[in-house]
Amino acid sequence: METRANYAVIGAFVIVATLAVAAFVLWLGQSQFQRDYKAYDIVFEGPVSLEDGSAVRYIGIKVGEVSTVRIDRADPSKVRARIRIDRETPVKTDSTASIQLAGITGVTFVQISAGSPTARLLEAKPGEPVPVIKAEKTQLDQLVAGGAQVLGQANDTMERVKELLTDENIESISTSLKNIETITTKLAADDGLIDRATGTMQDLSRASTEFASASESVGAFSTNANQELDGLSGQLGDLLTEVRNVVASADAVIVQGKDTVSVVNTLLEGPATGVVEDSRLAAQDLRILISRMDRLTRELEQNPQSMLVGEPVPYEDKR
C-alpha cells in the first residue's frame, strides 16, 4: 500500500515538473520574441493580393512577415494587415507601406519606405493597440482595382476588331494585296523602268540645282538694279529741282517782258511797231519752250525709269 502511494506521488511530481518546464520555455520564447519583434498595422484601401506569411521588406531588406490579414472592423471596404518586423527597424512617421511584386514570379510582399531622416519614430496613438503605417497605392493596386474596367475595354476592342474583319473587308484587303503584288512583279521584271525613273530623278535634281543658281543670279541682278535705280532717282531729283528753278525764273522773265512790251508799245509808235511785234513773238516762243520743259518735268516725276528703258513695246498677237 505504501509502495503504491509513493509511485503516485512521484508520478504527480513528474507531471507537474514537466508542465512547469513547458510553461517556462513558452514564456521565455514569447518574451524573447517580444524583445526581437514589433507589431504594426497597415490599412489598405480596397482589395489586396496579400496572404499570411508574406514577406515584409524595409527599403528592399527583409525585416519581418505578415502575421494576419483581415477585414477592417471600422470600415469593411478596407483591409487591415498586421505585420511583425525587427524591433530595430526605424519606421518613421512619414514612412509608407505598399504591396510590390517579387520579380516575375508574381509573389507579393510588403515594402516599407525609409521616410525622411528628420522624422520621428512611429508610435501608437491613444486608443490604438499598435502603430499604424500609412498605405500607399501602387501600380499593382491600380491594376487590381481597375481589372474589371480593363477587361471591359478589352471586350469592346475585340468586338470592334470582329466588326472590322468582315468577309467584305477581308476580300478588299486580299484584292489590294494582289494588286500590290502585281505592281511589284512588273517593276521587278522591267529593269528599264527603274533605270528611267532613276534618270528622271537625277534630271530633276540637276534642274533644281540649276534653278537655284539662276534664282541667286536674278536676285543679285535685282539687287544691283535697285541700287542703280536708287542712285539715278537721286540724280533725277536734283535735275528736276534745277529744272523747276529754271522754269520759275523763266516765268518771272516773261512777266517782266510783258510789262516792258506794254510800256514800250504805249511809248513807241510808227517805226518801233515792228520791233515790238518781234519781241511779242519771241516771248510767245519762250512760253511754248517753258511749257514743254514743264511737261517733260512732270513725265520724269511720274516715270523716271522710262528715261533708261524707254516706253514698253505694245504686244502683237502673231498667231
Automatic annotation (TrEMBL):
NADP found in the keyword field: no
Source organism per UniProt: Hyphomonas adhaerens MHS-3
PANTHER family attached to this UniProt entry: BLL5892 PROTEIN, MCE_MLAD DOMAIN-CONTAINING PROTEIN
Domain Mce/MlaD: 43-115
InterPro entries: Mce/MlaD
Record keywords, A-Z: Membrane, Transmembrane, Transmembrane helix
Top-level taxon of the source organism: Bacteria
Membrane-spanning intervals of the chain: 6-28
Protein name in the entry: Virulence factor Mce-like protein
KW Transmembrane helix (keyword) present: yes
